[in-house]
Amino acid sequence: MQQIPDSDTLLSLLSTMWTIRAFEEKVSELYAAAQLAGLLHLGIGQEATAVGVCSVLREDDYLYTGHRAHGPFIAKGADLGRLMAELAGRETGYCRGKGGSMHLVALDKGCLGATGIVGGALPLALGAALAARERGKNQVVAVFFGDGAANVGAFHESLNLASLWRLPAVFVCENNGYAEFTPSSAHTVVDKVVNHASLYKIPGVTVDGNDVMEVRNAAMSAVEQARAEGGPFFLECLTYRLRGHYEGDPARYRQLSEVAEWKAKDPIARFTKWLAKNQIGVEKTREAEKLARQRVEEAVAFASASPWPDPAEVSTHVYA
User: Fold this and answer.
1) Are the CB atoms for 47 and 267 separated by under 8 Å?
2) Which helix (H) or strand (E) holds 236?
3) Mean of the pLDDT values across residues 120-133?
């Protein structure tokens, strides 16, 4: 049975989804204008998964992601200005301009790292989960990854170890149907990624990743189990990225009808309609978008006014 929170919480969920959408739309705009450099992977269309999961995490819980990290980081509370500055390569960025979009870290919000290596965050997350358990503070670690990661060795090693040691980890598969440019039907014979979890005796569930309330309720159960020392949980969220794998990707591997079908399932539009049915007025939902876009513009202004890193720091924070 779906648990419906109070109106302030509902509007907060919408506001966070709008913030992620506005941030990534602005980032796309800046990238097209050559004001940002490097590879850029956007999760437009996947906002409900990030918000649904992170909305039930505590501030002292930990987060790891793959290369499509903006959404989960923003949902966990990362500062928009510092995120934008990092993407712009500025000294005020979370990694002093050295990490960029794919290698974000926001320690102040428990975001311990994004990685461009497919499945690379999984074993790192288990290290944090083990440390959290040893500290005895009932912290949980959520790790986001795509469906393509289910085909790498680190994925299976991590599930096995998490189950064996009963670690407080929540595995969040953002299953958008594609591993880079390859549809699921061409890279696996497993119909649902969550099926892998049962092999390692990890409970799991597949949910509609574009329904923020469904994701939130499933994540709540997952986090409660992990926090109560019940071991790991596997959450597969069926969603879709409305942009290509990276900005500039012509995405010829997808049918226009497929994209149109998923646009009709836009998580923000769906949640806005759901809110209206639950007596949350149109004016409040419009205000959520307006404020989100305003906050993003302020983040851009902060990044633009920030200094470039000192060339003398090129070799600092580097480990070999």
Assistant:
1) yes
2) strand 233-238
3) 96
Q: What is the DSSP string of 223-284?
A: HHHHHTT---EEEEEE---SS-SSTT---TTS-HHHHHHHHTT-HHHHHHHHHHHTT--HHH
CA distances from 228 to 101, 147, 225 (A): 34, 27, 5
**Spatial contact of 75 and 85, defined as CB atoms under 8 Å apart:** no
pLDDT at 1 over 70: no
**Cα angle at 209 between 204 and 214, to 5 degrees?**
75
Length of the chain: 320
Residue 212 and residue 155: Cα distance in Å, rounded? 25
Q: What is the mean pLDDT of the chain?
A: 94
Q: Which CATH superfamily is 7-299 part of?
A: Thiamin diphosphate (ThDP)-binding fold, Pyr/PP domains (3.40.50.970)
Q: What is the pLDDT of residues 201-220, one digit of tens each?
A: 999 999 999 999 999 999 99
Q: Is 221 left (phi over 0), alpha (psi -120 to 50) or beta?
A: alpha
CA quadruple 257, 259, 265, 266: dihedral positive or negative? negative
First to last CA, the chain: 51
How many other CB atoms are found less than 10 A from the CB of residue 284?
A: 14
> With bands split at pLDDT 50, 70 and 90, how would you rate the model's confidence at 282?
confident
User: Hey, what amino acid is at 142?
Assistant: A
